[in-house]
Amino acid sequence: MKKRHLFVAASAFMLLAACNSSNDGNGQENTSEDGNSDTGSITVTDIQGEQTFTEPAKRVVALDWTYVENLLALGVQPVGVADVENYHKWVDIREELSDDVVDVGLRTEPNLEAIAQLEPDLIISANYRSENIEQELKDIAPMLIFDPYPEESKGITHYEEMETTFREMAKVLDKEAEGEAILAELDEKYEEGKEKIESMDLETRDFVLTMAYTDNQAPVFRLFNPNGMAPAILEKIGLNNAYDSGSFELYGYATTGVEELLSVEDANFLHIVQDDDGLFEEGLANNAVWNDLNFVKEGRVYALGGDTWPYGGPLSAMTLIDRTVEALDQ
Amino acid sequence: MNEQGKSVFYSFFLLIVGLSLLLVISGLHLTQGQAQFTLKELVLGLWEGDGRIQSVVLGVRMPRVAVGLLAGGALAMAGLVLQTLTKNPLASAGTLGINAGAYFMVVAAAVFLPGINSSYPFIVSFLGSALAALLVFSLAGRAMDPVRVALTGMIVSLLFAAVTSGLQLMFEQETNGLFLWGAGTLIQNDWSGFRFALPFIVCAGLLLLLLGKQFDLLLLGEEAAAGLGASIQRIKAAGWLLAIVLAAATVSVAGPIGFIGLMAPHIVRMLGIRGHRQQLIHAFVWGAFLLIAADVLARFIQPGSEIPVGAITALIGGPWLMYLAYRTGKRYKGQNQTLRGNRSKLSFPWLITSMVAVLLVVAIGALAFGGGSFYGFSEIVSGALFDTVTVQFRWPRVLVAFLVGALLALCGVLLQSVLRNPLGDPSILGITSGGGVGALSVIVLFPSLSFAWVPVGAATGAGLAIVVILLATKRSNWEPISLALMGVAVSAMGSGIIQILTVKAGVGVAPVLLWLAGSTYGMNWQDVWFLAFVLIALVPISYSFSRQLDVLALNQEVSVTLGLRIQLVRALVLLLAVGAGAAAVAVAGAISFIGLLAPHAARGIVGVKTRFVVPVSMLLGGILLVTADLLGRFVLYPKDIPSGLLVAIIGAPYLLYIMKKL
């Protein structure tokens, strides 16, 4: 039944798309200066440079979860999302992904035909995910490609990139007001969080944030580095990131073993670990170094939950703050 | 001092030297770690009972050294015994596919029976090891001809590796933690790994020592041994079982680590140690030394992060294997197999017609499926196969699948004829693995290069691999067996480099795995034109060599008397084969088995004449990959299963069958 509906919807949109494309010719000529006037076109900047759209995007396919989340924050349900099942496992934000959003396959290998069938008017992806299929995707619909992990030389931090990308997405959806509202709300959240942290009687405001997992019986810690996005968020609520790997980390974290934790043992240990991982039950239970760490002995190990997503957008940032404040407030 | 006394003294002296080296390297190993302590601090800290240093050294670093000691020693002993049992200097748990089998089983268990791994890690990897050993044992034949054993082990490894990487690709989250381990690592949390492996390794080791004299008898030859009252079958069975126990225990605590079992026994023999008891003890020491030294090296190269020790041992061991292959190849000169085939009663034109018909049916089926459903008959008739989406996405995929399948089959036919070896295949001659290294280097080492460079990297890597192989075998006049063995060595080294690159790739690992599994995902018309061009250029040339190839296939003496300029023909045909293989690998990644399967099946239908075998195997290869592509898109829609993996799954039973019959 569902398929039939989809087919009807798809054919309806094919008609719409046909109408749109006939408008394209006119639209591209009157590029207005400010990039987004009521009558004119929309100019958005991604890693490819400036891109012009004649109309706000309506049917968007998001191939990485950050962009799914940004769409939801802006009040737009995507038409297609890569790997819905794992999205639910790893990302928890206040906006729910609608059940009729189509799963278009793995993030690493999205199904091109499934995307084409959705007749999207925009595909959003991350550069490191879609380089090998960029041309094919562009044949389906215009693309916005962002770089969530900019190199040091790009002169933009991971946190700034998150905000910039969010604003660019708001532009292309013609939801700039909504976008600014969310960012303002995030700023408020920072203030609130800061007050709460200050009101708490914490032994220390130093923290180390990690996403940790078991690598066949051996614990692996992704320790977030000062250049990563998540520590930048937590610093905004008055905490201090105690960990520094000493160099720029492309993905914002250094991958280490348990010995590395000795350098941050006086901080609060905030961790993101999947419930079914067994890291603490099996990997660390009898580990001499772990059991001897100050934050373990003094009870400063705080679980944020496996679906706190440290690589996302404003809504994930809010989840991160809520969970952190809640965890520390015990 | 009498002769025996002297040799005991000599052996004892060497043992002391080995143990001292082992002690030094272990001490060096203990100073390495993320927490920065100097040697002095460590020693003083331990002496004065500094709790922090004690917990680091005794709690985390010592277990790692201890596991390295056990694992290295166990692998070396297993290798020594396997080499005796198979009378094959190239045998080890790695080259016989035993490690790959164990690792496969662990990954499969992680996916399908989560929980069982943590409860019964040894049983899981033991089953995998035993399965692989049984496969190799039953397929290589009772004679245990070294070359066949080596090639069979290689193929069994490939088979497991293909399925394993497919599983990792499909179940990214479940197997996430197994990447690093897949290349072998000594990381330990506590003493549990050591405590777990210790009894297995000590018991198996002691039993082997007890059986030492019996193994000595085996080397005399079966009849002589039987004459001296040894029960050959029982000793052999015990040897296999103990070697597998050693390998499985190692895999379950440290992952699959190759080449230690190959190198250590050779060092021991080079030192002139005689007799299995002595050799086993020395092998244990040297194996432990090599493995711990490799781990020291791995952490020296990149302090703070984990390069899998298995990749380092592969890098060191690859050239070693090449050297051994070189020597073994010379010794086994001239033992060629002729290619066999059947001529079926079906007339050739009729056969081709029916195959083309099958191809059309499959191709139309493949073109009709997409976006989750098949086109109905009426839709096909009304031209749905030519709508934009289909033409843009499905046609290139299906055509590329056909062309890649055909090219790989062509590559296989040419290689098998020129090597007079029924196991000639692009993946065995290092073409696939070299291509993999090239492609991965582009993805991992030069991330700023556009993806368009990946095929260039693949072609370069494949070309380099074959050049290395040809140069290394030049002195033996490119004897088929030397070639094949050198190919195995180069492949092994390639996979070591691939392992390092895979770990280095980190977050970007999925496209790498996709490429390694071989996939027809995301093809466009450019790929089609490129492959079509290669095919059109290569097929007529290959055809023009068909008579020479038929003569070559008879055997070398005959071809010399018939006045063929053997070297020239051989070099040219090899070049053609590499061209076909490299083009296929560059576009679709490492798709194994088609080059092996299709020519075999073809010879089973039309006999050995090259001009018949070429078209039939190309059609078969094409049909096979088009089918795999369709199934890959269909089975888990909207997820895509790499077609290389499906080829392995479809082809594996047939492959095992033909290997049995060889």
Q: Could you describe the 3D structure shown?
A:
The complex is a heterodimer of chains A (330) and B (662). Chain A has two domains: 42-177, Rossmann fold; 201-329, 3-Layer(aba) Sandwich (Rossmann fold). Helix content of chain A is 40%, strand content 17%. Chain A has helices at residues 2-27, 65-73, 84-90, 112-117, 127-130, 134-140, 158-172, 176-199, 229-235, 279-283, 288-291, 294-297, 314-328, and strands spanning 42-46, 49-53, 60-62, 80-81, 102-103, 122-126, 143-146, 206-215, 218-224, 240-241, 253-256, 268-272, 301-303. In chain A, strands 8, 9, 10, 11, 12 and 13 form a six-stranded mixed sheet that branches. In chain A, helix 3 (84-90) links the parallel strand 4 and strand 5 (102-103). Chain A is globular. Chain B has two domains: 3-329, ABC transporter involved in vitamin B12 uptake, BtuC; 348-661, Orthogonal Bundle (ABC transporter involved in vitamin B12 uptake, BtuC). Helix content of chain B is 76%, strand content 1%. Chain B contains 28 helices and two strands. Chain B has helices at 3-31, 39-48, 51-85, 98-112, 116-119, 121-140, 146-170, 178-182, 192-219, 222-227, 232-254, 260-270, 276-301, 309-331, 348-368, 377-381, 388-419, 431-445, 453-472, 480-505, 509-517, 525-544, 546-554, 556-561, 566-588, 594-606, 610-634, 643-661; strands at residues 369-370, 373-374. In chain B, strands 1-2 form a two-stranded antiparallel sheet. The radius of gyration of chain B is 26 Å and the shape is globular. The mean pLDDT of chain B is 82. The chains are: A alpha/beta (330), B mainly alpha (662). The interface between A and B is large, with 55 and 59 residues.
> What name does CATH use for the topology of the largest domain in chain B?
ABC transporter involved in vitamin B12 uptake, BtuC
Query: Radius of gyration of chain A, rounded?
Result: 22 Å
Mean pLDDT of chain B: 82
CATH architecture of the largest domain in chain A: 3-Layer(aba) Sandwich
How many domains comprise the coordinates of chain A?
A: 2
Find the count of extended strands of chain B (DSSP E, 2+ residues). 2
* Sheet with most strands of chain A: 6 strands, mixed
**Average pLDDT figure of chain A:** 86
How does the overall form of chain B come out from the CA principal axes? globular
Helices of chain A, by number, come to 13
How many domains of chain B? The number is 2
Order of helices and strands of chain B: HHHHHHHHHHHHHHHEEHHHHHHHHHHHHH
Order of helices and strands of chain A: HEEEHEHEHEHHEHHEEHEEEHHHEH
Which CATH top level class of the largest domain in chain A fits? Alpha Beta
Question: So what's the overall shape of chain A?
Answer: globular
Strand fraction of chain B: under 5%
